[in-house]
Amino acid sequence: MAEDMTFLPRAQLCTLEELVHISQSFVALGIRKIRITGGEPLIRKNIQSLFQALGEIEDLEELAITTNGAHLIEHAQSLQAAGVKRINVSLDSLDSAQFTQLTRTGNLDNVLSGIDHVNKLGFAKIKLNAVVLKNRNVDQVIPLVRFAIDNGLDLSFIEEMPLGNISEHNRSEEFISSEALRELIQSQLSLLPSSESTGGPSRYWQVPHSNTKIGFISPHSENFCDACNRVRVSAEGKLLLCLGNEHAVDLKQIIRANPGQPEQVQQAIIKAMEIKPERHYFDNDDVQIVRFMNTTGG
Hints:
The chain has 298 residues and is of the alpha/beta class. It has a domain at 1-30 and 231-298. The chain contains eleven helices and eleven strands. An eight-stranded mixed beta sheet has the order 1-2-3-4-5-8-7-6, with helices on one face. Strands 9-10-11 form a three-stranded antiparallel beta sheet. Helix 1 (16-28) packs parallel to helix 2. The radius of gyration is 19 Å and the shape is globular. Mean pLDDT is 86; it is low at 163-167 and 286-298. Its cofactor is [4Fe-4S] cluster. This is GTP 3',8-cyclase MoaA. Residues 1-194 form the Radical SAM core domain. InterPro entries: Aldolase_TIM (IPR013785), MoaA (IPR013483), MoaA_twitch (IPR010505), MoCo_biosynth_MoaA/MoaC (IPR050105), rSAM (IPR007197), rSAM_sf (IPR058240).
């Protein structure tokens, strides 16, 4: 599932201060939730100053993070102090050898210790995210569900998105739908449809007699574009209006060309919404989006 990592030159990245300014512009326009994602956001130098600054933005109601969990223990308390309420942890396997193979460098014990640590600190919500491939880690679906139940966590299964050209597996052969995963889970555990929504693409099912909800994010089989209200800003400052399209606006260029003029960034954001695509069209055999998820960020 992993692909070779290439880090961008620092000059191509937004500074942390620029990311704060962009965030302030979004909040001024009515955005109330910001999630920092990656790649892995916690490896960026001085990342805590970004969370602290975002947590101080007036009218921002929710600050969240998606992480691979490897650095949670060292950052958890400062994240909580900055106002982070929700943590999503990417976790595709509970088998140590398989986990290392899938992530190439990951240490499962380290990630599980991080999850346990933030769980004990009492964040408002901790959710696991898992991408399942038919011939790689489908054997981990039930163990992941039971782990979530035992630890009072939510869990979302995400259909693999065809972003970036890869050589390590055939996407068509590895694809497994959300429906197939639900049937697999329901062969051993009860699931009840839930009306709960976090405002995102997950469609949730409740595990009876537990606090755990199982979500399914289905960009292929159950297109959710009609309800999507999300946009992403990459580490380069590109405003990406859809993961499945290349529509983008360079906010970094605008902010650097117009220092001290947040209204210019706000106007660019408003205008960008006019070209937000109606939907995406994913095809496992035809990669139309060459960027990987870890270069998209959020």
